[in-house]
């Protein structure tokens, strides 16, 4: 992600200073395509996790407020997950029988999460997401 923020800084403060509105729109599309490629690669490589990078990038690049960034990330990762799952399923790396149970339970959890997303204040959501990322990072470092 640091590479993206260097790219974003360069686009915002060096390139956009002397460009027309049409050129600016093209650059925004370039950034969105770059985000799409990176999030797709992350999702395919790690078997998920694109939303973890999409939320902050959508906030920063697309200037979405946090609730829209979360909702947009869900919509994007839905398709990314389907596309990323195909090679795993085709190569026999996924256990489809177990996946059905997780998908049913995940659908219930997803509906509950979407319901509560509308009710949680933006500031609390922002800090809860940051805390989740920190907790997940520490856990992965400690437990592999």
Question: Could you describe the 3D structure shown?
Answer:
This protein starts with a helix and ends with a helix. The radius of gyration is 17 Å and the shape is globular. The protein contains six helices and no strands. It has helices spanning 2-15, 21-46, 50-61, 66-90, 96-119, 122-143. The longest helix is centred in the N-terminal third of the chain and has 26 residues, at 21-46.
Work out the helicity level: over 70%
Count of discrete alpha- or pi-helical segments spanning 4 or more residues? 6
Mean pLDDT over the full residue set:
81
Tell the overall outline.
globular
Topology pattern, helix = H, strand = E? HHHHHH
Rg on CA atoms, Å: 17 Å
Number of strands: 0
Structural class: mainly alpha
| Strand composition percent | under 5%
Describe the sheet with the most strands: none
Low-confidence stretches: none
N-end to C-end Cα span? 21 Å
